[in-house]
Fold these 2 entries.
Entry 1:
Amino acid sequence: MFSEIKKCLLLAIPLSLAQLAQGATGFVDTVMMGWLGSQTIASGGLGASIFGFCLLLFTGIVSAVSPLAAQAYGAGNQEKVGTIVRLGLGISLILAIPIALLFCNGGSLLLLLGQNANTAALAQTYLRAIALGFIPALGFAVLKSFLSALLQPQLVMVTVVLGTLLNIAANYVLMFGKLGFPAMGLAGIGWASTFSLWSMFVALTVYICNQPQFAVYGIFQPSFYKAFTLEHRHIIGEIFQVGLPIGGLIAVEVGLFTVVTFLIGQLGTNALAAHQIALQTISMSFQIALGVSIATTIRVGQLAGQNDLAGTRLAGYVGIAIAALSMAVATIAFWLVPKSIISLYIDINDQNNAQVVALAAKLLGVAAIFQIVDGVQVTAAGALRGLKDTRIPMLIGIFAYWCVGLLTGYTFGITSGYGAIGLWWGLAIGLALAAIILTWRFSTRTTNY
């Protein structure tokens, strides 16, 4: 057991740090949006939620590269690893282009979803600026999956950390018009993210191309296009067979948060601003559990590829336990110092922000309760992903998040009049149910695996 804990942590720590740094891009963006006022943080946060939802959804699809490459690597099939990654890059490009075009007209979509006209117009300036960043973001996800499957997550961590620092600097320069650039406000934050995302993708590409150890996989070989042949149609099918349910599970979970965001947006600017602060905060802590989940997928996938049945089961349970413990730390912070956390976003001593501060503190109190189950459910799903079991977990997610979580939240928040607090309690109940069922599913699958 201790050997497996060590192996999981060697993967999970750099991956969690990479996820934290990647999540810090959204965190820093939200904090700096707050410098421009409550209206900007509400509008920009709404735009960031849409971008984040689409990115997670489509990253989920191409992240099928991770368990597939891990199993091929565990079985010693280098040629298949290279083919999977090349196909993943091609699929990421095909998926990214139309979504980037959709972002360019994001304001119209927000109006159709019932958002305030001023909020939608300001959010569109952000979405148009960050649209071109969607293409490298998906490509980066594929390369990250490749390096992680080969047990080399350290470079991913370094690249994301440097990319985040670059984003912070670019935010400041473009927001306020430094170094000869015009002051672009919210749009400048979007352009800074685009620049950062392209920089990270290019950095990983250059590294892989210049390291002899990766040459055997032929990721960027001149005959790249030959991966898309009838000979490899079964691998293309497998990527979508595994990836679409992964994306679907992410969509139903993140979609739940997105729908709740739209519902709260109809309750007013103060409620939306408080929701964005709390949501961005839990998104940061969730990145730790997400890193553990990715590590668990890889460990389970590699051991499954080696037909190590007992090791496969142990790897899943170890990952779930590590995620639960890491989320317990975040829970304590949310309970003990909520106002210190909120002060990172807005001036808590400004009376104009009093309602936002009070509501955000209450939302963090609810979030503290479901942090642990959130970590358990995402890691249990990651363990199942390592077994290429993705369709049933997606159906479990639909039931837990939407049929139970959203319905309960709507009943408490809208019908019963508890507002944002009631909607967040619905989130907690849905995540807890998902954690229970997904963990049971992994236990059942590995008993008979």
Note: The chain has 16 helices and no strands.
Entry 2:
Amino acid sequence: MRFVILLMAVNLAVSGALAQDSQPGGQSAHNHSGQAPHDMPGMNMGSSAADWMPSPHASSGTGWQPAATPANLWSKKLGSWEVMAHGAIFLDYNQQGGARGEGKAESVNWLMLMEQHALGGGTILFREMFSAESLTAPHPGFPQLFQTGETYHGEPLVDHQHPHNVFAELALYYTRPISEKVSWLFYGGAAGEPALGPVAFMHRASAAELPMAPLSHHLQDSTHTSFGVVTAGLIMDRVKIEGSAFNAREPNEKRYGIQFAALDSWSARLSVAPSRNWTAQYSYGRLEHPEALEPGSERRQTASVGYMRPFDRGSWATSAVWGRKHKELDGRNLNSYLLESTVNFKTRNYALMRLELVDKDELFPDDPARPSFRIGGYTFGGARDMVQNRLWQMALGADLTFYSKPRALNIAYGDNPVSFQIFLRVRPGTGTHQH
């Protein structure tokens, strides 16, 4: 808890340094073509870009969120550099219901720093993302019914979400226009996200008020922290084509380290941005030996649609995601479906929901048959900003989760488990939403 308070103090100190030139509420500085959106005065390094172009500062990896997404960040010009910072801290009490549930105080948190500069006719963006969850998540991680993935003390994690690594991203992102409507991009680093899946859940505007990871995380966007990744691609008008080589092995239990391995996995992604309110993507990848305790490789497919609609004194963000994991060892397919939405209304108020269906085959790791179960998670909640200004926002919120499951799981989980969270959320301010 002391570390979280220290992290909050550091964030506020950084915000004080950046606030003089901060542009809250506008679209983040430059887009993939190396140009600045026309609604960011004071940050333009080139001619104005089309307003549908998604920003790399409001997303993860090279993923696209709609250009209309408000950016909660601090920014400052330092000579010819543009420096930005954003993140979020959730302090919450998490009570998971049923026979396998537990309650704990915890903190979900992350901080991203970005530095941007013109280079060789294009734009280079450095990203560093950090998380203190290895200190603020009670062992063996955040309690979460039906969640699986990664390990603790050499055993599979079940009914817990693992904390994120201290170094969640250490990467650079370079874009250079080739012609009026075509740009080239390169992305890579010691820790980064390949071109596989939707924008990671902690960066999605549709999940901004949800501290808990989706149950479908490990079938959709679990590669958002890969220790070694290289991506190249082309942006042609409203379409982006990209491919990655990366290390797909899941991080080990030492959350403060970087575990390099061969870049022997690959992925490809097609993304479109038909307007400033919509984005969509389809991606496919082969992951070599992703699981620490399971032999074999897997193939993954994902498809997603993102929507952002600003309106007077608010906005509505929605994501729909499908993810499939094909295990080559036994030929098994696991599917997941997610619909999540956050509505910001009357500026200070938020209503949120997340609906999921996901196949889980790791709930009973000691069972040699390893049956698969279709689990449903249905989360509803709300939050209200008690503090909201151009510098920062602090909200009090809560959410409630119901589940559907096969009757065979009633003995282990109870008939109708219900989980809830009460949280305090702190992040940079946005000012007024852009229209």
Note: The chain has four helices and 19 strands.
